[in-house]
Amino acid sequence: MNATIQTKIAQFQIVKQKILAALRKGENYELKTELNSEYKERRKEAVRRVIANMTVGKDVSGLFTDVLKNMHTDDLEIKKLIYLYLINYAKTQPDLVILAVNTFVKDAEDTNPLIRALAIRTMGCLHVQEVLDHLSDPLRKCLKDPSPYVRKTAVMCVAKVYDLSPAIAEENGFVEDVRRALSDSNPMVISNAVTVLTEINEMAPGQNIWRLDSKTVPTLLAAINECVEWGQIAILEALADYTPKTEKEAESICERLLPRLQHANGSVVLTTVRLLLKYEKYVHRADLLSQFSKKMVPPLITLLSSEPEIQYVALRNINIILQRHPKMLSKEIRVFFCKYNDPIYVKYEKLD
């Protein structure tokens, strides 16, 4: 009896799969027809439906060539969706991706900087060796583009090229172009250049592709005031690996970092605290050291009134700070009192 039931269940599952496959095939056929429609709005809606299906995990790779036909459009929204589709299926359809190369190259020279940046970003994200040969010339032009938005996007693309082929990145001088971007007039380009050079160093351990020097530090410190929070963190992380040459240089860097303690982003604050703790080893003036300690206290206290997750991270960092400066928070002992609604992991850290 049980065997009969199991057999019927198995048969039901097979029929169910066939029905679902037929429905998918029918839907894909309908989308294929819409993608080749003579009406622009119908093609636009079809592209949206393809991306919606792809997002929920449905296989729409069979529509690759039909989607590609819609790349030649001035509609930025549709172009973004098609590029997203290409990134998703590039590795499974590398031969067909080559068909889109001419459109990428053309878009990289478009009058609209948003389209130029989108084209160069997508070519880098495809991560297909065959596309790499066609990427070099557009990338070289975009690294020197008059628009800072395009330049900062092109700089990030260099990291993707280096990851795929370090030899091509070096031969075409892309790494050197990123080094030159450290003196760019736009702070976002500078912060992206720092991020890329740091990533390249991690990809090539022991080669010292880039090392921060005393000539570059003032440029980074000037740019940090105008960067978004993640750009600031990238620059601060890079400065953590720099050793000041003189006590005066260490003092100057610390004084220029102090305003970052007032930032709303907890990561910026904690990274700044970490830097101040590192650089204070090179400062011998007692009045300055006392000033640094006093400046660090309020932002740390502020972090302890944030969400539990941020509190936990702040407490872990405070634990390390107090090992070096045991009396720094001696007047703020109340912030370590356990509250009834504190999560257990926060209570343990407070007690510790």
From TrEMBL:
One GO CC term, this protein: membrane coat
Broad class of the protein's primary localization: membrane
Swiss-Prot/TrEMBL GO biological process terms: intracellular protein transport; vesicle-mediated transport
Domain Clathrin/coatomer adaptor adaptin-like N-terminal stretches: 25-352
InterPro entries xrefs: AP_beta, ARM-like, ARM-type_fold, Clathrin/coatomer_adapt-like_N
Protein family (similarity comment): Belongs to the adaptor complexes large subunit family.
Protein name: Beta-adaptin
Organism annotation: Coemansia pectinata
Gene name linked to the record: APL2_1
